[in-house]
Amino acid sequence: MNSAVIGITVHCMLTCAGVLSNLLIILCLLLPWGGEGQVKGSGAVNLAVASVAGSNALLCLSSTLWFLLAILNKCQHQWACKTILYILVVSIYTSIWFTSLLCVFYCAKILPAQSSLFFRIKKNILQWLQWGLVVSLVIICTMSSYVLVLDVYPSNSTLYNTTAVNSSGADVAQQNTTSVFFGLCYIFLVALPVGLMVSSCVAILVYLCKHVCRMESGSSEFSSPQLESHKRVIWMIATQVILYCLCILVIALTNAIDSLSSITTNAIFNLALCCYAFGTSVNCIVRISHLNRRVSHLGKRLTSYGSLLWRGCLASYQSNPNASGQNQNRANQ
C-alpha cells in the first residue's frame, strides 16, 4: 500500500509539473503584455508552440487519469474507459503531429527557398500551419475512433495490447482487416510525422551549423544577435529530438519486457509521457526568446503582487493586536 501511495504521489507531482508548465506557455502567449519594446514573436510561432503545449497538457492529464484508474481499479464502466482511452490516444498523436509541424515550420522559416512550392509555403506559412493543424486534428480524431469499439479496462490492459482484447475470437478476415487498418494508422499517425520531424530537424541542424561556423569565422558584431538566435534554435531542435527519442525508447523497452505487469507498464508509460511533456515545455520556455521574456515578466509581476499582498497582511496583523487589546479592555470595564 505504501508503494502504491508513493507511486500515485510521484505521478501526480509530475502531472502537475507537466500541466502547469504547458498552461504557463499558453497563458504567456495569450497575455497582451510582456517584452515591451522587443520582438513578441510571429503569430505562426505562437500558434505552433501553443498547439504543442495544449496537446502536451491534455496528454499529461489523460495519461495520469488512465494510470490512476488502473492502479485503483475503479473504472467499471466501459464508456468511461473508452472515453479516457480515446482522449489519451488523440492527445498522443496530436502531440506527435503538432511537434512535427513545429519542426517543419522552423524548417520553412529558416532554410532558403529552393523550389516554387517551398517558396509558397514560406510566403504563406501561417495559413499552411493553420490548415496543417486543423486537418491533422480531424484525421487523428477520426482514425483514433477505433478505441470506441474495444473492450478494455485499465487494470488488465495497456495502450499497446488493447487490440488483442476483443480480436482473439475474430476470424481470419477480420484479423486481416484489423491489421491493415492499424498499419495505415501507424503509417499516418506515427511514421509520417516522425519522418517529417527527423528530416526537418536534420535539415535545420545541418544548415544552421554551417551558417554559424561561417558567422563565427567572420566575427562580425553586427551578426551577433542573429548568431545567438541561430544557436538557440539549434539547441532547441536538438533537445527536442533527444527528448522524443528517449520517450520512445523507454516506452518501447517497457513494452518489450513481457514479465512486467500491466500496472507497471502503465506506470512507466505515464512517467515517460509526463517527463516528455514537462521537458518539452521547459525547452520551449528556455530556448524561445520572446516566450522566455514573457515568462520572466510574468514571474516579476507575480513576485511584486505577492510582495504587496505580504505587506498588506503584515500591516493588518500588526494593527489587529491593538484592536483586540482595546476590545479586551472594553470587555473588562
Task: Itemize the secondary structure elements and their pairings.
Layout: H1 2-30, H2 43-72, H3 78-110, H4 116-123, H5 125-143, H6 172-218, H7 224-256, H8 262-287, H9 289-332
Protein name: Taste receptor type 2
Pfam family, one: TAS2R
Keywords: G-protein coupled receptor, Membrane, Receptor, Sensory transduction, Taste, Transducer, Transmembrane, Transmembrane helix
Structure description:
- The protein has helices spanning 2-30, 43-72, 78-110, 116-123, 125-143, 172-218, 224-256, 262-287, 289-332.
- The protein is mainly alpha-helical and 333 residues long.
- The chain has a single domain (2-311), classed as Up-down Bundle (Rhopdopsin 7-helix transmembrane proteins), CATH 1.20.1070.
- α7 packs antiparallel against α8 (262-287).
- It is globular and about 65 Å long.
- It starts with a helix and ends with a helix.
- The model is unreliable at 35-39 and 160-170 (pLDDT under 50).
Largest sheet: none
Elements, N to C (H/E) = HHHHHHHHH
Count of separate structural domains: 1
| Structure class | mainly alpha
* Uncertain stretches: 35-39, 160-170
CATH hierarchy, class: Mainly Alpha
Whole-number radius of gyration?
25 Å
CATH architecture: Up-down Bundle
Overall helicity: over 70%
The CATH topology is Rhopdopsin 7-helix transmembrane proteins
Query: What is the terminal-to-terminal distance?
Result: 59 Å
Q: Per the principal axes of the C-alpha atoms, what is the gross shape?
A: globular
Portion of residues in beta strands equals under 5%
**How many individual β-strands?**
0
* Average of per-residue pLDDT values: 76
Instruction: Count up the helices.
Output: 9
What name goes with the CATH superfamily?
Rhodopsin 7-helix transmembrane proteins
Family: Belongs to the G-protein coupled receptor T2R family.
Main location: membrane
Protein name: Taste receptor type 2
InterPro entries: TAS2R
